[in-house]
Design a protein that fits this description.
The chain has about 150 residues and is of the alpha+beta class. About 30% of the residues lie in helices and about 15% in strands. The chain has helices spanning about 15-20, 65-85, 135-150; strands spanning about 30, 35-40, 50-55, 90-95, 110-115. Strands 1-2-3-5-4 form a 5-stranded antiparallel beta sheet, with helices on one face. A hairpin with a 3-residue loop joins β1 and β2. It starts with 14 loop residues before the first helix and ends with a helix. Bound molecules: guanosine-5'-monophosphate and zinc ion (ZN).
Length: about 150
């Protein structure tokens, strides 16, 4: 059912904003003022769930503190409950941030993918490309650059 959403929190032509607005149906499993969780329409596993902030933002780094706090609190709460609901043995929890990482829907979302012993899947390490062969000096340089980018 359609519901009024503050236009400043929505983006036109965003499929997940349309789900938040109730204009596109979804199998919603959890909802608060800040987040909504629903089953992925094309699941990688039984119970594959997407958790999204209701306010539109493309990148995880675009989320304000309220949205990111609510998003990760929901992921923390939902992950074990989803596993239990589908009797899973584990779960992969991940975000495709940006097209290069495989993001297709430009509204930040966290995938919770239940995993089952012997399901033939792979760990999250499998998402990377060819592993770089970094020397200790190069690793030190990366650590310095990342620390500077974080601390300013
Ligand atoms: P991404 O590659 O952007 O991280 O993943 C987007 C996910 O959204 C995909 O797993 C895809 O199956 C799911 N998805 C795309 N459109 C819809 C939709 O309209 N409804 C639901 N429930 N899931 C969708
Ligand atoms: Zn959106």
């Amino acid at each position: 059912m359609s519901r009024a959403v503050d236009p400043s929190r929505m983006s036109d032509d965003c499929i997940f904003c349309s789900i938040v607005a109730g204009d596109i149906p979804a199998r919603t499993v959890h909802e608060t003022d800040e987040v909504i969780a629903f089953l992925d329409a094309n699941p990688l596993a039984r119970g594959h769930t997407l958790v999204i902030p209701k306010a539109h933002a493309k990148h995880i780094g675009d989320l304000n503190e309220t949205a990111s706090g609510a998003l990760f609190a929901a992921v923390t709460e939902l992950t074990p409950r989803i596993q239990s609901a589908v009797d899973a043995d584990g779960a992969n929890v991940g975000i495709n941030d940006g097209e290069a990482a495989g993001q297709e829907v430009p509204h930040a979302h966290v995938h919770i993918i239940p995993r089952f012993e012997g399901d033939g899947g792979a760990p999250i390490h499998a998402v990377g490309g060819k592993r770089p062969n970094l020397s200790d000096d190069e690793l030190d340089e990366v650590a310095t650059a990342v620390t500077a980018a974080i601390d300013g």
